[in-house]
Amino acid sequence: MTNDLTENLFSLIKSLSASEKRQFSLYVGRIGVNSDSKFLNLYKVISKQKKYNEAEILENTSITKLQLSNVKTHLYKQLLISLRLNPAHQSIPVQIREQLDFAYILYHKGLYKQSLKLLDKVKLLALNFEEKNLAYEVLELEKIIESQYITRSMNNRADILIRQTREISALNSLWGDLSNLSLELYAIFLKQGYCRTEEEAISIKEYFKKQLPDYTFSELGFREKLWVYKSHMWYSFLIQDFLGCYRYSMKWKELFVEYDHMIPVHPVSYLKGNHYLLESLFYLNHTELFEKTLIQLESSLRDAQIPHNDNIAALSFLYVYSNKLNLKFMKGEFGDNQELVKKITDKITKFKGRLDEHHIMVFYYKIACLYFGDGDNKKCIAFLKKIITNKSLGMREDLMCFSRILNLVAHYEAGLDYHLDHLVKSTYKFLIRMNDLHEVQKEMIKFLRKLPDVSPLDIRDEFKKLHAVLKVFEQHPYERRAFLYLDIISWLESNIENVPVKTIIQQKTAASSR
């Protein structure tokens, strides 16, 4: 077994819950001969290990070094079979596949009528829960049986099967095109973030128009509508149409209200819809509605319809706590957040294997912004360093760029002027390399470069000048993206009025809620 599969086996065993361990013991104990089998002894040893240790395995079992690879492979397979039998993992798709397997067994036994009867039931289940790929597999087996064994159950049986196959095939093809488009737009967003120029926006609009397949909305089912909304939402995010983001994420959420039986089947999509609705409200700055929606999301996680597993636990943390941070920014509540930050960093450690690097870096950026707003610039710099030193340049370039801008500002605020000239030069080079040097960044670089030479008597005037220049860009369709990551205007106003930045943001929040 390769090192990758060894790690997979070790991590799978360590992920087992108490009930899953009991299930495995019952599963392997169903045959007496298993009680002292090599794979079970391997399981027992690995279960007690904190770190994989092959020497300990060879010493405490009768497994030879030559046998070890095969025993690991067998154990991995048996664990997956046991988990598949666990009621906690008996999802609708798993149930449909199991019934389809049974139908194949009956078919191979020559029990055609029994097989067809089972297929008829499982097809209804698949269509009811929008598992149309599986429904297509059911139809293919039905056609094989019907072409081999004339059941005479229906005079027009062939016509019905042909029509159903064509309808489902067309919907599956549409679903494939929509899901591809959504994934491609998401990949663009992860790579570059929001559109940076008019040219980029035009390119995205043309690409979206070209790739969006033709469809008649009234003929779509739950699955196809979901991917329509996802595609439109990512398109809206890319071109910074946050009202469009709100519109389509709201449709996404309402789709699950209409098809509430789909929540347990697609809990991840359900949670994501709520999360992106919150993202839209954050960028639209609707604080009251945002807070209400966040409470609803937390409440829904306690609903029995949402399955409780490791994947949902990791996603729940991601969506709830990233939006808790967003709410802090919206309200200007930057102080007394040590407990929240500790909880987030602890959970990042706990779920590290289930959270991708991109989302971890977004957490670090938001925590850095939280400390910056509270005036704790050294802690802000410490979290920004985690992003800046990250070599995974496949992650969002805009996040990397604005981390460096905030890093410059935080160094200035912390009084670390002796680093400023070097940081300005390295940031300038990085922004050029990333093709991200636009007017807001240019003005910020120019301002910070000359700041150490400005007389203390003139510093307020310099802040006012930059404020006047940047205020023009606040509503610019593409330059405004700088303000989505860092509230530079509020920072400038805090320096002009000589008050903490959180005070300025709190005043703006209070004024907007009147």
Would you give an account of this structure?
The protein has 514 residues and is mostly helical. Helices cover 73% and strands 0% of the residues. The chain has helices at 3-15, 18-28, 38-48, 54-60, 65-85, 92-108, 112-128, 132-148, 157-192, 198-211, 222-238, 242-258, 267-284, 287-300, 310-331, 338-350, 357-373, 377-388, 397-413, 420-433, 439-450, 459-471, 481-485, 488-497, 501-512. Helix 13 (267-284) packs parallel to helix 15 (310-331), helix 17 runs antiparallel to helix 18 and helix 18 runs antiparallel to helix 19. The longest helix has 36 residues, at 157-192.
List keywords for this structure.
514 residues, mainly alpha, 25 helices
Q: How many strands, which pairing sense, and closed or not: the largest β-sheet?
A: none
Mean pLDDT, as a whole number? 86
Helix segment tally: 25
Spans of 5+ residues with little confidence (pLDDT < 50)?
none
Q: SSE order in H/E notation?
A: HHHHHHHHHHHHHHHHHHHHHHHHH
Percent strand: under 5%
